[in-house]
Request: fold
Amino acid sequence: MPGNYQLSVDTLVDEVGDALSLGIRSFILFGIPTHKDPVGATALEEEGIVQQALRTLKQTYGDRALLITDECFCEYTDHGHCGVLSERTGRLDLDNDATLPNLAAQCVSHARAGADIVAPSGMLDGMVGAIRTGLDTAGFNHVPIVSYAVKYASGFYGPFRDAAESPPQFGDRTTYQMDPANAEEAIREAELDIAEGADVLMVKPALSYLDIIRRVKDRFGVPVAAYNVSGEFAMVKAAAAKGWIDEKRVALEILTSIKRAGADMILTYHAKDVAEWLG
Ligand code: PBG
Ligand code: ZN
Reply:
């Protein structure tokens, strides 16, 4: 995607420095390991790419940078699914319960390396509870969980999957991501995550789900985050590059609509542009 790159740890330090000087204070880290396997073992290593990045950023910027980590295995598994697989259901598919301890271990490892907030994005059943217990047991009671509570199986993730080299190698994610036609399920998923200890609820994608952001905000009153995903960003960039829309005007209008719908925080690839425009 225009303006978005895979970074090494040293180029990441410069990137975060630039963003900090523009007034951006929060960052979410996604890891792309050199080696993938069926379990995603590199996600848990002390010398894993995200762990290294966290330590270096904390050493360089301390608490000036709030570091959030995306917690999932799809970037680390060779099959591209969000955890370990099994044939328990008769066909090869994600094994929800077998993945939970790995997810908790990934979060603890990131917290130890300096993550301020963990954000599990796989939408597995029971993930928030498993992570909360894991973090508390390891002494990280103070690390909040932003749960991707409401995540739709969406075509808008296309550019991200290419960038993160994480498309599923077979099948799809519809067994754990939600049907775009279903609004009620969003409420039930959010309810479960709150009961398990989620501190912030994330709705994803944002633009085609403004009604869901509003419902979740009204219903629960907890902080709501919205993820303005790669495909939403790419549409704006592509149309602007063709001269068909005014990028600044449209991007700000979209972000305003997400805010108006009830989002307390917005995760967006437009962040640096917006910080400059509004600077
Ligand atoms: C996977 C994950 C996805 C995104 C971030 N983490 C979606 C997916 O591939 O299912 C998408 C983000 C974007 O499109 O910007 N856990
Ligand atoms: Zn995933």
Notes: Strands lie at 26-29, 66-71, 85-86, 93-94, 117-120, 146-151, 200-204, 224-228, 265-268. The radius of gyration is 18 Å.
